[in-house]
Design a protein that fits this description.
Layout lengths: L6 H10 L7 H11 L8 E4 L5 H9 L4 E5 L10 E4 L5 H10 L3 E6 L9 H22 E12 L4 H9 L2 E7 L10 E9 L10
Parallel strand pairs: 1-2, 1-4, 2-3, 4-5
Antiparallel strand pairs: 5-7, 6-7
Pfam family, one: FtsJ
Enzyme class: transferase
Function: Specifically methylates the uridine in position 2552 of 23S rRNA at the 2'-O position of the ribose in the fully assembled 50S ribosomal subunit.
Length: about 200
């Protein structure tokens, strides 16, 4: 795709099309390739600031969309947002009151990078695991999960964990990802919901 996805052109395209950041194209690319969203899906977007994925989601589904972030997000028509930590049980309870059932959970969040590879990767994997735990609490049977992560020594263990919870799991590097970045996305479809009361005597 060449220069179409260079840093400057992606930013320019995003500005021209009214998106809040170039990250919009990552979700558009993922959905075009994997079809994670249906026209009536309810979606929760974790780490949603500044709201570019929320903009894409609003264009792709007529369902309820809820965004959660530590930072406040400028209002978007047809989108509900919560300012808080998605790992907080109170925030999770608030999400459930706003949307049920949830068909898709997306997470494009990442920590501020320090430049120390092993440290940064440990932090992103920690966020990934928390996002997966959130998804396990809120996704309906057969739901989908998309999460940004980084390649590194902890990546395969987390990937295995996701595979234990979804029937179809793919690793995908979007066309809008900057050259040289270790950023990648895990696209997980068809959640295997294990009921808490499914134990046998």
């Amino acid at each position: 795709m060449g220069s179409q996805w260079s840093r400057d052109s992606a930013y320019r395209h995003a500005t021209q099309e009214g998106y809040r950041s170039r990250a919009s194209y990552k979700l558009l690319d993922i959905n075009a390739k994997f079809g994670i969203l249906r026209p009536t899906d309810n979606v929760v977007d974790l780490g949603c600031a500044p709201g570019s994925w929320l903009q894409v989601l609003r264009n792709l589904t007529e369902g309820v969309i809820v965004g959660v972030d530590l930072q406040p997000v400028s209002p978007l028509e047809g989108v509900k947002t919560i300012t808080g930590d998605f790992t907080d049980p109170l925030i999770q309870s608030e999400v459930r009151k706003m949307v049920d059932p949830v068909s898709v959970v997306t997470c494009d969040v990442s920590p501020k990078l320090s430049g120390k590879k092993s440290y940064d990767q440990a932090r992103i994997i920690d966020l990934n695991e928390k996002a997966l735990e959130f998804s396990q609490q809120i996704l309906k049977q057969g739901g989908n999960f998309v999460v940004k992560t980084f390649q590194g020594e902890l990546f395969n263990d987390f990937l295995t964990e996701v595979r234990n919870n979804f029937y179809s799991v793919r690793v995908y590097r979007t066309r809008a990802t900057r050259k040289g970045s270790t950023e990648t996305y895990i696209v997980a479809k068809n959640y295997i919901h294990i009921r808490d009361d499914a134990s046998t005597d």
